[in-house]
Amino acid sequence: MEILVHRDALSRFGYALSDPTRAQILLSLRTAPGYPSDLADAIGVSRQTISNHLACLRGCGLVVAVPEGRRSRYELADLRIGHALGDLLGLVLAVDPACCPAAADEGCC
C-alpha cells in the first residue's frame, strides 16, 4: 500500500512538471512568492492561462494561495519543494549536460 501512495505522490509531482508553464511557475515561486498577474507578465502568458496552471498546481498540493485583501499571493506549499526542484535540476544537468547547455553554463542549480 505504501508503494502506491508514493507512486501517486510522485505522479502528481511529475504531472505538475510535465508542462513547461507549470514548471516555470514552480521555478519562479522557488525564489519568491508571486502574484498571478506578475507571474503571467514574467512568463509571457495570459492571466487566464496562469490561473488555470495555478489551479492545477494547487490541486497537486504544490502551491498554496495566501489571501491578501482582494488579491492572493502564491507560494510553494513547502520549502522542500524548492529544494527538490533544485536537486532534480542538478541531477538532470549532471546526467545529461547537453540537454540544456545554457543552464549548465549559468550554474542555475
UniProtKB/TrEMBL annotation:
Domain HTH arsR-type: 4-96
InterPro entries membership: ArsR-like_HTH (IPR011991), HTH_ArsR_DNA-bd_dom (IPR001845), HTH_Metal-responsive_Reg (IPR052543), WH-like_DNA-bd_sf (IPR036388), WH_DNA-bd_sf (IPR036390)
Alphabetized Gene3D superfamilies for the sequence: Winged helix-like DNA-binding domain superfamily/Winged helix DNA-binding domain
Protein origin, superkingdom: Bacteria
Signal peptide stretch: none
CDD domains referenced in this protein's UniProt entry, alphabetically: HTH_ARSR
Name the record gives this protein: Metalloregulator ArsR/SmtB family transcription factor
Organism, as annotated: Rhodococcus parequi
